Structures are given as C-alpha cells and as structure tokens.
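Deliverable D5.2: sample structural annotation.
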Amino acid sequence: MDIYFKTVAGALVAAVLCLTLAKQGKEFSLLLLVLVTGMITVLALEYLDPVMAFFRRLEDLIGLDSGVLRILLKIVGISVVGETAGMICADSGNGALAKGLQFLTGILVLWLSLPMLEGLLELMDSILRELG
C-alpha cells in the first residue's frame, strides 16, 4: 500500500508540473504526462502477481480452460491500454481521437469475446436439444 500512496503523490506532483509546463509549451507537458502514466502502469503490473496466482489456482480447481483465462487477461489488458491511451489523447485536446480509441477498444473486446460467446451458444444449443 505504501507504493500506492507514493504513486498517488507522484501523480499529483506530475499534474502540477504538467499545468506549469503547459503554459510554456504543451509538448513538454504531454511528454511528462505520457512518461508518468507509463511509470504508473509499470507499478500497477506488480499487483498482478497475486491475481495471476489466483487465476492459476482457479484453473486447477475447476478445470478452467487456459484459453478462456488467456482471453480474459487479454480483454483486461486491452481495456486498460485503450482507456489509458484515450485519457492521454483527451488530456492533450484530442477528444475525437480518444473516442475513436474507445470505440476501437470496445470492438476489439467484443472480437476477443467471440470464442467464449460461441462456446456459450454451443452449450445452450446442446441443452436445448436434450430438452427438446
């Protein structure tokens, strides 16, 4: 938790620096914003180890297919990257680009979900055939 509070403090300092740098030149402010966001993302990745251990345990206990787990992790990763990139674009004054990234991220998440949705459809079809 100590790392979290230090990161929040660093982000607040970076926000103040970005405001100061924006008055002199928007380019340096945006560069600082991208660098600090990247550092926060790297720090956040450290917290994924226990989550991954939980998913591996869940996979072993219930026989969860590793392909499903892989898809879920890709969806989470793509969502985080898309959201972060969209926020950076919006902060740099490119709202339309941010919305485009959100749209692309949503479509990609849907595309990645197709194998799971197809498996669900097959399961529902087999259940209905047994009942009918």
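Annotation notes: The radius of gyration is 20 Å. Residues 95-131 form the longest helix (37 residues).
The annotation will be released with the project's public dataset once the embargo ends.
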